[in-house]
Amino acid sequence: MSGKIEARLAELGITLPVPAVPVANYVPYAVTGNLVYTSGQVPVADGAVAWKGKLGAERSIEDGVASARLCALNCIAQLKAACGGDLDRVKRIVKVVIFVSSAAGFNDQPKVGNGASDVLVEIFGDAGKHARSAVGVNELPLDVTTEVEIVAEIA
């Protein structure tokens, strides 16, 4: 489908990844009423993990920002699937949670989280502005740098 959001993606030069299939006993998204909850999405591109390691150790803040951005794009791909391919159904991004694999003493999780937040606003405009948590964790699956989940309101 092509609509306002698809046109915006094209304008930004963004191609959404193919939505990842679950690797365990969960669904990639759940719809209840007018809300879509994505499962946590990791920085996978073309079937391979793009970013591994801990922020504040072997990975920089810039790496974390790029990783969080990719995670958010993977969330949008799941959101698109939940909307039957029509991202114009997204009324707003309500909440974003960013998990950041962090070395001891690393406390710039909000800066890393901006990678996800910024791309959501770039794509959805004011409807992309959201409540957010950016949380440092000791480990993430597959040794990824970040994991992002989104709650969105849809029409």
From TrEMBL:
Q: Which domain of life is it from?
A: Bacteria
The record's InterPro entries line, in alphabetical order, gives: Endoribo_LPSP/chorism_mut-like (IPR013813), RutC-like_sf (IPR035959)
User: What is the official name of this protein in its record?
Assistant: Endoribonuclease L-PSP/chorismate mutase-like domain-containing protein
Q: Name one Pfam family in it.
A: YjgF_endoribonc
The Endoribonuclease L-PSP/chorismate mutase-like domain covers 6-153
Q: Which SUPFAM superfamilies match?
A: YjgF-like (SSF55298)
